[in-house]
Design brief:
The chain has about 525 residues and is an alpha/beta fold. The chain has two domains: about 45-270, Aldehyde Dehydrogenase, Chain A, domain 1; about 275-465, Aldehyde Dehydrogenase, Chain A, domain 2 (3-Layer(aba) Sandwich). It contains 17 helices and 25 strands. The strands form seven sheets. An eight-stranded mixed beta sheet has the order 11-10-9-12-13-22-24-25, sandwiched between helices. Strands 17-18-19-15-14-20-21 form a seven-stranded mixed beta sheet, with helices on both faces. A two-stranded antiparallel sheet has the order 1-16. Strand 18 (about 395-400), helix 14 (about 405-410) and strand 19 form a beta-alpha-beta unit. Helix 3 runs parallel beside helix 9, helix 4 crosses helix 8 (about 200-215) and helix 6 runs parallel beside helix 7. It is globular. Keywords: Oxidoreductase.
């Protein structure tokens, strides 16, 4: 036997300079006003406050302790809202040219610390390195576009009567939450955000510190959504509520808004589906499905459901199984040699060990009630450090025909779990794709475009792709949802600016889903 062939490969280890301690020390050096040695701080009224009880948080990457959000009480949240209103009253009179200059300065500061923001995201929410940097880049590039285009969007419009309150999920702290806040401030509003409880606290703290240094009226608080709801949702000072999250929490927020008359946009989940009918371009579809596993499908526009014509199922399977078995997952910062680049993974952990346990239970339920396990990956296929905690990692799974009694039949799993449904008619295809009463995106794989366009008109999704996926989109592209997946004004481009400003027409009808009407832009 060749001696070289018998030499075991080097053991994986953490790339030097990428530990949580390294990342936190760098954050403290960049923004000492926002990071104490032992905890994060909250921001309102232009000052950082050492208040609230820090949540005991663990990194999903390896289960090790990281800085948790400092959870304030409702009285402090009301104090923060009042301070944000004071910021708002001053900021709305700042000329647009000055607002553009200050937002530009904040973007440039975040660009300077791009890699640190991304490294914090890796530890806090488990994003692989490439995707973490992409999250930061999309936020900054998107805001630069608004800075260039905002003059025409805001012409004849004024800021809201009060600041914008932001409550968002943990999965895109920069490209969704920070991006939205910077545009809200560019449009003439102060902005306050609640730190997502499950992750992103340190990244958002650093970004908000850089924004505040640039003179922007931003506030950041942490706490339980249910305890702070009276302040962050119903407070009379609030001019608009922006929410991104699941249907359960979104429904509670919507109920709290019923009698307030506040401007709002509530992005909620839906079961985004990809239908496959009279189709033959399997190599094209394989590329889309492979990319679809990025970040473990922990995003609002992921496709966890495939609805397949029975006559095509054998060809679908021949394409699908090599794709799902090639997915790369594991520790986002593990390398063989110190000088190696960080691994280019499809995904790391899911957000918490509890979420991994929940997903495993949903898979077991679907199989127990009659679904067929089409594919089940193994943690042994992942890329891990020796003896590291792997409790938040979930290998890819595919379930064929999950029964109606199982959660995977009708609800988005928010993890690397696919469900595949076999149908025999166009009517069955549409019914299966519309299983969740509204979705953000959907796609049809179909060789005949006229058939695809006809079917797409029957889908309850805001955006429908033909032989390609749809996403949230960037810059001028509108974004929203149909059915229960969205409430309030739509966003994206001028729609986002109009959602957080007031026009001269007191009877203005914004694009969106409202109790009295729904109005959709071209998508």
């Amino acid at each position: 036997m060749d001696a070289a062939a018998s030499t075991p490969p080097p053991r994986l280890h953490l790339k030097p300079g990428t530990s949580w301690a390294d990342a936190y020390a760098r954050a403290r050096q960049v923004a000492p006003e926002a990071f104490d040695e032992d905890r994060l701080l909250n921001l309102w009224g232009g000052r950082w406050h050492r208040t609230g009880n820090p949540l005991h948080s663990l990194s999903p990457v390896d289960g090790s302790p990281i800085a948790g959000p400092p959870m304030i009480d409702p009285d402090e949240a009301r104090e923060a809202i009042r301070a944000t209103l004071d910021d708002h009253k001053e900021w709305r009179d700042v000329p647009l040219a000055d607002r553009k200059a200050r937002v530009t300065a904040a973007v440039e500061a975040m660009e300077e610390h791009r890699e640190l923001l991304a490294l914090l995201l890796v530890w806090e929410i488990g994003k692989p390195w490439r995707l973490a940097r992409t999250d930061v880049d999309r936020a900054l590039d998107g805001v630069r576009w608004y800075i260039d285009e905002v003059d025409s969007m805001i012409a004849g419009r004024t800021s809201l009567p009060g600041p914008v309150s932001n409550i968002a999920s943990w999965n895109y702290p920069m490209s969704v939450l920070m991006h939205a806040m910077l545009v809200q401030m560019l449009a003439g509003n102060a902005a306050i955000a609640k730190t997502p409880t499950d992750g992103g606290a340190a990244c958002l703290t650093l970004a908000c510190a850089l924004a505040r240094r640039a003179g922007l009226p931003v506030s950041l608080v942490s706490g339980s959504g249910s305890r702070l709801s009276s302040a962050l949702v119903r407070a009379p000072e609030i001019g608009c509520l922006a929410f991104v999250g699941g249907r359960s929490a979104g429904g509670q927020v919507a109920a709290a808004l019923v009698d307030t008359g506040k401007r709002h946009f509530l992005e909620q989940e839906g079961l985004n589906a990809w239908g496959i009918w009279d189709f033959s371009q399997w190599d094209l579809l394989a590329g889309h499905l492979r990319k679809g596993f990025e970040y473990g499908k922990q995003r609002c526009t992921a496709y966890p459901r495939y609805v397949v014509q029975r006559q095509l199922f054998d060809q679908f399977l021949q394409m699908y199984l090599p794709v799902v078995s090639s997915v790369r997952f594991g520790h986002p910062l593990a390398v063989e040699h110190d000088a190696d680049p960080l691994p280019d993974l499809d995904y790391g952990p899911v957000i918490t060990a509890e979420k991994a346990t929940e997903l495993a239970a949903k898979v077991d339920e679907a199989i127990t009630k009659g679904g067929l396990p089409l594919y089940r990956g193994d943690l042994a296929d992942g890329r891990f450090l020796p003896d590291q905690d792997r409790s938040a990692y979930v290998p890819p799974v595919a379930i064929l025909n999950p029964p109606p009694a199982a959660a995977l039949h009708h609800a988005e799993p928010f993890g690397p779990i696919d469900s595949i449904v076999i149908v025999d008619s166009e009517a069955e295809l549409l019914a299966a794709m519309n299983a969740s009463n509204g979705a953000l995106v959907a796609s049809l794989a179909c060789d005949d475009e006229s058939t695809a366009r006809r079917l797409s008109g029957e889908l309850a999704a805001f955006k429908v792709g033909v032989n390609k996926p749809r996403s949230r989109g960037d810059r001028a592209e509108p974004f929203g949802g149909r059915g229960a997946s969205w409430k309030g004004a739509f966003v994206g481009g001028e729609h986002l600016v109009h959602a957080v400003t007031v026009g001269s027409d007191s009877h203005e009808r914004l694009y969106g889903n409202f109790p009295s009407y729904s109005l959709y832009p071209e998508t």
